[in-house]
Amino acid sequence: MTGKIIKGIGGFYYIHATDNRIYACRAVGIFRKLGIKPLVGDDVDFEVTDEKDLEGSLTAIHERRNILIRPAVANIDQAMIIFAVREPDPNLNLLDRFLVYMGMQHIPVVIYFNKADLDQSGLMARYRGIYEAAGYEVICGSTDDPETLQKIRTALKGRTTVLAGPSGVGKSSLTNRLFEGAHMEVGKLSQKIKRGKQTTRHTELIALKPGDGDLADDEAYVLDTPGFTSLYVTGVASQDLEGYFEEFTPWIPYCRYVGCSHVNEGKSICGVRQAVGRGDISVERYENYCQIYGELKERESTYR
Ligand SMILES: Nc1nc2c(ncn2[C@@H]2O[C@H](COP(=O)(O)OP(=O)(O)OP(=O)(O)O)[C@@H](O)[C@H]2O)c(=O)[nH]1
Ligand SMILES: [Mg+2]
Ligand SMILES: [Zn+2]
């Protein structure tokens, strides 16, 4: 039988099979021997070992369209990167790392800023401005707002979307609102530090089946993932980083030297730095670029 891995817990992979039932499967030793770890989102073959208890044994993983390491998922069409406008305050440096990371894997991104109901000082509009200017689709709203949910449903329609972001921003809350059948545990914010507490421990794929909500005629999958707070960018050369900051592109021809890093060169000879000075590139984005650039550069000199 074939199916899709919807979660993996305690050595079992739960497979949503073509007969529309869910089987708990163990992976045969060959995967361990080959060093292949089945991932949520994998399309697989398995043998039913217990018809009554719905158990089986995973025998093959179909070729993957893509994989992400963090969060660990396979075969996604897009990522919805979720940050809260407050509680927890957004770490735009982490957001920019997510964007570079998804860009490297050629995974389209939608940015969703959640908890608009907590925004009293126009932060949401500022964030929207920064990321729309950087070329991204941005949705702002809150999980209790029907209009927001409608926008998100439209963005998810017909696709497999991984929800990624720090702990406590509302990934599981959103999943529960979108899918009647979903019952993801939702965390309480620690009152003292206003940070999430890593409520979700395992990635889970939720299928929107015909009949649910407004997507009746189309299938959609969402992967709710555990939040995390840091992401180290690797696998990109420092001189290629600028390619993941699309809004820099129009200004690079104004740099005096080909191969300008936009970090070490003086402002008088760097088109990107001049654009930052004029407000054509956001200071936040530029500073995050500099920080990631510095890390990549340091790595390159260490591992040369
Ligand atoms: N004010 C406000 N609170 C929200 C909103 N959406 C979610 N929350 C709250 O935020 C807290 C964290 O929500 P979760 O859904 O558990 O967050 P998560 O992103 O899944 O967190 P992890 O599973 O730890 O990664 C909960 O107390 C939710 O009730 C929103 O739009 N506005
Ligand atoms: Mg969660
Ligand atoms: Zn430059």
Model description:
This protein is α/β, with parallel strands linked by helices and 304 residues long. The chain has 3 domains: 2-64, Nucleic acid-binding proteins (OB fold (Dihydrolipoamide Acetyltransferase, E2P)); 68-224, P-loop containing nucleotide triphosphate hydrolases (Rossmann fold); 238-302, Probable gtpase engc, domain 3 (Ribonucleotide Reductase Protein R1, domain 1, Orthogonal Bundle), CATH 1.10.40.50. It is built from 7 helices and 13 strands. The protein has helices at residues 29-34, 92-104, 123-133, 146-156, 171-178, 271-278, 283-302; strands spanning 2-9, 12-17, 22-27, 43-50, 55-61, 67-68, 73-74, 78-84, 109-114, 137-140, 160-164, 204-208, 220-224. Strands 10-9-8-11-13-12 form a 6-stranded mixed β-sheet, with helices on both faces. It has a 5-stranded mixed barrel with strand order 1-2-3-5-4. Strands 6-7 form a two-stranded antiparallel sheet. The longest helix is centred in the C-terminal third of the chain and has 20 residues, at 283-302. Mean pLDDT is 92; it is low at 210-216. The site of magnesium ion has 6 residues, from helix 5.
Structural class: alpha/beta
Bound ligands: guanosine-5'-triphosphate, magnesium ion, zinc ion
**pLDDT < 50 stretches:** 210-216
Separation of the first and last Cα atoms:
48 Å
> Can you count the beta strands?
13
Molecular shape:
globular
Question: What is the residue-mean pLDDT, rounded to a whole number?
Answer: 92
Question: How much helical structure, as a percent, in the residues?
Answer: 25-40%
Relevant CATH superfamily of the largest domain: P-loop containing nucleotide triphosphate hydrolases
Sequence of secondary-structure elements = EEEHEEEEEHEHEHEHEEHH
How many whole angstroms does the radius of gyration measure?
21 Å
- Helix segment tally: 7
Number of domains: 3
